[in-house]
Amino acid sequence: MRTRPPLAWLLIFDLVVNASRLFPQFRPLRLTELIADTVVISSIADSLMPIEPATQFINDNRNLPPTILGIHQTEKLKFLPVDQYLALSTPLANQLAQVMHYYDSHLAGILVIDYLSLWHDGKPAFGSGYRLNAYTRLLDSTGKTLRDWQWELHHRPSRKQTAPECYSILYNQWLSEQAIAVKLNPVTAALISPYRYRRQLTTWLDWIKLTDGYILVAHLTLDYPADQLPKFIRGSPGIYYRRSSKHESIAIGGKDQQWYRRLNSRWLTRAYFTYRVGFNNFNPHAFDQVDFWNIVLLNLSCGVSCEYRPVYHRGLFVGAGLHQSVNLLPTVIRQFDTGILFTVGVVLP
């Protein structure tokens, strides 16, 4: 026989279900909020004298609450994915205003923080680590952009440093450098980016002419713009194809690293290094038999080139340079490959 639940339980159930209607200020917590992780990022502004709210001359235009620096995914109990909130003790605009006051930096307009991201970049072979990317603009009273800053800061952690500690180092470095940049370059800039600050798609093909055959390497990356940086590092795994009269090879991925340095507003140089593991196929007319380990491709590659890629350029770009490969496997081909490099690619905003 089924019994009715006590009246008290019904009243409690009705109160929970209708709590948001009876008490508008009450909102039941979701499970993800109950188990979310919050990390307070220490700031140099925490030790500085408090000042009046900075909303009149510093505008935090990010799509986040003013005291949240970022939201990352982490794991609890080593398997449960949860959001990790990087929190500040006071709003971001106030902290930047405190640091600017400390450096005696005066604004000739309104400073807008359009974007700020803290993340880990594991793509480069040697330059992996934590990065801060940000975009800020200085506006006049009419809303016209007087100058802008594209920020990219890098920190390679020591063995004992945690991710929040690395984020704190990068954040404090940005606060100081932004305040100093406003003080040293208060108003005008030579060029202002015509594009919205976000990751841009860059794809290019390296064609390498060798004495016997050729190499094709295709790259596709999605990275933050670096037009204002004099030098920067990128990681870009690619698809590698090598063809000669005796064999052909293919490899996908690899730990590529590209070092870029801008020569002027139109030209930049690129130096690259990578190691690859792949597979080989041999011409049966060139070899009667090869040892089984030669089916594996293992090589090291490096090169330098000069590319025509103007500042804030979007569309096609070209370049040329020199390439050098060292073939560890297979052992039945030439160990060193030297060639001429030609590059063609496209940058999409």
Notable characteristics:
elongated; Porin; 4-stranded mixed sheet; alpha+beta
Structural class: alpha+beta
CA(first)-CA(last) distance: 70 Å
Identify the CATH architecture of the largest domain: 3-Layer(aba) Sandwich
Strand coverage percent: over 45%
- Low-pLDDT residue intervals, each spanning 5 or more residues: 1-5, 7-34
- Secondary-structure element pattern, one letter each: HHHEEEEHEEEHEEEEEEEEEE
SSE topology:
Elements: H1 7-17, H2 19-22, H3 31-35, E1 37-40, E2 58-60, E3 68-76, E4 80-87, H4 92-102, E5 110-121, E6 129-139, E7 145-155, H5 163-184, E8 200-209, E9 214-223, E10 231-234, E11 238-243, E12 247-253, E13 257-262, E14 267-282, E15 296-308, E16 315-329, E17 336-348
Parallel strand pairs: 1-4, 2-5
Antiparallel strand pairs: 3-4, 5-6, 6-7, 8-9, 8-17, 9-11, 10-13, 11-12, 12-14, 13-14, 14-15, 15-16, 16-17
Structure description:
The chain is of the alpha+beta class. It folds into 2 domains: 32-184, 3-Layer(aba) Sandwich (Rossmann fold); 200-348, Porin. The chain is 15% helix and 45% strand. It has an 8-stranded antiparallel beta barrel. The protein has a 4-stranded mixed beta sheet with strand order 2-5-6-7, with helices on one face. Helix 4 (92-102) crosses helix 5 (163-184). The termini are far apart.
